[in-house]
Amino acid sequence: MLHLSVPSQDTQHVLQRLKAESALPEGARVCMDPSDSNRRLIPFTESISQETAAQYPVLEIETDSPPARNYRDHLTDFLPTSIIESTDWPTRHEFVGDLILMKLDENQREFGDSIGKALLRQHARTRAVFEDRGVTGIFRVRDLKLLAVREGHEETTRTRIVEGGHHLWTDPSTVYYSSRLSHEREGTLNCAMNLRQELARPLSICDPYAGVGPSLRPLIAEPELVGELFAGDLNPAAVEFLRENIIHPTATIECIDALALKNRLEMCENYDLLLINIPHDSLQHLPNILPLLRSNGIARGWAIIEDSDFESSIVQLHSMFGEEVNLEVRRSYSATANLCRFEARKTL
């Protein structure tokens, strides 16, 4: 590559001049002139003006390619420059364990295999890349299409995630899992530990919408926190993962509709801590699962609430639990709704 050899004190001035002339290569790096430590070498392109090129000696030297900043820098190994420059490439992707999930539009989809290979090259720990075609079915699982898989590795969507230092097996194509509530799940652990201290004994805990167990995994890892434990889910695939992820001597794990649990007398008024994570329906389901909670027990969960319904939702919670109710906006869900967290003690 051609470089200008400039006095060290002129380096910044020349860089600005080349940039103004659109003659500074992308990712350009300045290096020392090996023949004179008081001079610097600055690369340039053919856009350089004759005036600038005539002011300094020109040297041709071999340089290492700058490191790739993102997967798009690798596309040149798979696609013609004309396509790369004329296409609007996706900028966001999601990591789930050793998988990458990426949404593509119709124009990007024909280059999906190249995008997948470029992502594998950029992220050495990734095993496979899938196009995420959205959530489907009653269990809100991902419709995934394989784009690329690392040579010698399996194409499966089964993967292991790490959340809060705890390992969990999951599969985005068969079960629902979201990392967005990971910080909220840390709060659940704090809530449980405070309740254990108050009661001075291990807790009886029920999570009837447990998924693959992300809320329960930190709880069972805490010594003498969990006494009796019930974990359930309506999705049979999630229950299989629960049995892998939640290993505890008192755990009962079932594939069951949470709304049917109130019909089991042995479970009514049996739990100190009730977890409700079915955000689109939490407040609607609460009256049916509240019978599981003991007097002075705590229910903790998440609900998507329209701005216009926020005050009435507080009133609804007070009518079910009593005075000790907290409803808090955690983040925006849409232009008119928020994901909210509620924590309430049953005092009625």
Features:
GMP Synthetase, Chain A, domain 3, seven-stranded mixed sheet, 26% helix, Alpha-Beta Plaits, 3 domains, 348 residues, Rossmann fold, four-stranded antiparallel sheet, elongated, alpha/beta, 10 helices
How would you explain this protein's 3D organization?
β2 and β3 form a beta hairpin. This protein folds into three domains: 2-60, 2-Layer Sandwich (Alpha-Beta Plaits), CATH 3.30.70; 71-157, 2-Layer Sandwich (GMP Synthetase, Chain A, domain 3), CATH 3.30.300.110; 179-345, Vaccinia Virus protein VP39 (Rossmann fold). The chain has 348 residues and is an alpha/beta fold. It is elongated and about 90 Å long. The strands form four sheets. The protein has a seven-stranded mixed β-sheet. It has a four-stranded antiparallel β-sheet with strand order 2-3-1-4, with helices on one face. The protein has a four-stranded mixed β-sheet with strand order 5-6-7-8. Helix content is 26%, strand content 32%. 33% of the residues are buried. The chain has helices at residues 11-20, 50-55, 81-86, 106-109, 112-122, 182-199, 217-221, 236-245, 282-289, 310-321; strands spanning 2-7, 31-33, 36-43, 58-60, 94-96, 99-102, 128-136, 141-149, 159-163, 166-170, 203-207, 226-233, 251-255, 271-277, 293-306, 325-332, 337-345. The protein is built from ten helices and 17 strands.
